[in-house]
């Protein structure tokens, strides 16, 4: 097959490309230039898609002996990922930009261009297992539970998954680094990227305020309605947040307060005790079924609401474009805007992704 290997400049994508070459595919490497400031340099494990990353990707491609190109997707990345991120926070929701990036950039913009150029598949360094059985994609958790990225891939359509390759799905990260060293890849010990790639200093509140300005409002006790303080914008908060609330007086019982709800129209941030964070019911919309199989009636599953953690057994049911989820065990800090991914536990084979949907409301 003709395979386009997306090479971020990290160890995972370099080894994924190497395995595609070793499997006999006709491989071409491509690095996506996503930064609107191409002079930006990486700082340790913060940031990605930088000049340094592009150079690392090119050196890896040279060692593998494959053609290499840099494609400028900065404008589309800004529109699809950055602006969506800012808009969601302004609306009082909590987005996951990695989900958006995979959906809109790596497996929409990139895959569409690859198909137009005659490639058969796009290869990435994601940790997830993928197979196609009788033409139907099956996306599962990776062998390395700590690195599993099936959550951020669960919003891909069946057609996108049919043209995807995840060579690292059955591997563990230490083994991938060892393989990179054996292959002579200089990125073997390069730190993994953390946090949000377009906020390299990690200060999300400052970034959002630079885009949205200050939108003052009240911090309100959800139980009594008392105004506890002022804030500079609901975009500086997320449901479940405890630190940085700016409340001087302690709660009457001396226990910490948490953000319970955001009301962007009135500018109100409601806070209260931890017990009020518990969620037992989720309503989500914009459902996607990677395996082309919408739920057939109430279905026992495991739901995950964050990229790392936030899982609970549940019963889910598809109602039109919505998914209604009743949790067997409560989850805390579930926020509108997050993605709910449904898994079917499969012993020994890695949990199968049943579908995903965007959280609209909780109870």
Automatic annotation (TrEMBL):
Q: What is its EC number?
A: 2.8.1.13
Q: Which residues bind ATP per the record? A: 6-13, 32, 125
A Pfam match is: tRNA_Me_trans_M
Highest taxon of source: Bacteria
* UniProt keyword Cytoplasm, yes or no: yes
According to its UniProt record, this protein's enzyme class is transferase
Which keywords belong to this entry? ATP-binding, Cytoplasm, Disulfide bond, Nucleotide-binding, RNA-binding, Transferase, tRNA processing, tRNA-binding
Q: Using the record's annotation, list all stretches that form the tRNA-specific 2-thiouridylase MnmA-like central domain.
A: 205-272
Write down the NCBIfam families for this protein, in alphabetical order. Answer: PRK00143.1, trmU
State the name under which the record lists this protein.
tRNA-specific 2-thiouridylase MnmA
Tell me the organism: Prauserella oleivorans
Q: What gene is this protein a product of?
A: mnmA
């Amino acid at each position: 097959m003709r395979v386009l290997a997306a090479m971020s400049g990290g160890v995972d994508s370099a080894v994924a490309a190497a395995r595609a070459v070793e499997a006999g595919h006709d491989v071409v490497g491509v690095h996506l230039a996503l930064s609107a400031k191409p002079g930006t340099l990486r700082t340790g494990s913060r940031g990605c898609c930088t000049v340094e990353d592009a150079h690392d990707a090119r050196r890896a491609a040279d060692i593998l002996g494959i053609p290499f190109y840099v494609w400028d997707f900065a404008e589309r990345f800004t529109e699809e990922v950055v602006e969506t991120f800012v808009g969601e926070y302004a609306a009082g929701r909590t987005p996951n930009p990695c989900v958006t990036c995979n959906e809109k950039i790596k497996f929409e913009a990139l895959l569409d261009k690859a198909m137009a150029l005659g490639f058969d598949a796009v290869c990435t360094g994601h940790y997830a297992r993928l197979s196609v059985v009788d033409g139907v994609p099956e996306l599962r958790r990776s062998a390395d539970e700590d690195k599993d990225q099936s959550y951020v891939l669960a919003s891909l359509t069946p057609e996108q998954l049919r043209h995807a390759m995840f060579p690292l799905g059955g591997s563990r990260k230490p083994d991938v680094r060892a393989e990179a060293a054996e292959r002579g890849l200089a990125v073997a010990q390069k730190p993994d990227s953390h946090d949000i790639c377009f906020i390299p200093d990690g200060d999300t509140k400052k970034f959002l305020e630079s885009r949205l300005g200050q939108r003052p409002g009240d911090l309100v006790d959800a139980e009594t309605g008392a105004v506890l303080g002022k804030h500079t914008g609901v975009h500086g908060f997320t449901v479940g947040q405890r630190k940085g609330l700016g409340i001087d007086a302690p709660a009457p019982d001396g226990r910490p307060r948490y953000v319970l709800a955001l009301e962007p129209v009135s500018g109100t941030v409601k806070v209260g005790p931890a017990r009020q964070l518990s969620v037992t019911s989720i309503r989500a919309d914009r459902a996607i079924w990677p395996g082309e199989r919408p739920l057939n009636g109430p279905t026992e599953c495991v739901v995950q609401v964050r990229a790392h953690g936030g899982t609970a057994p549940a019963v889910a049911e598809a109602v039109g474009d919505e998914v209604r989820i009743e949790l067997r065990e409560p989850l805390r800090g579930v926020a509108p805007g997050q993605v709910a991914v449904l898994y079917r536990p499969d012993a020994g084979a890695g949990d199968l992704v049943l579908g995903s949907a965007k959280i609209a409301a909780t109870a």
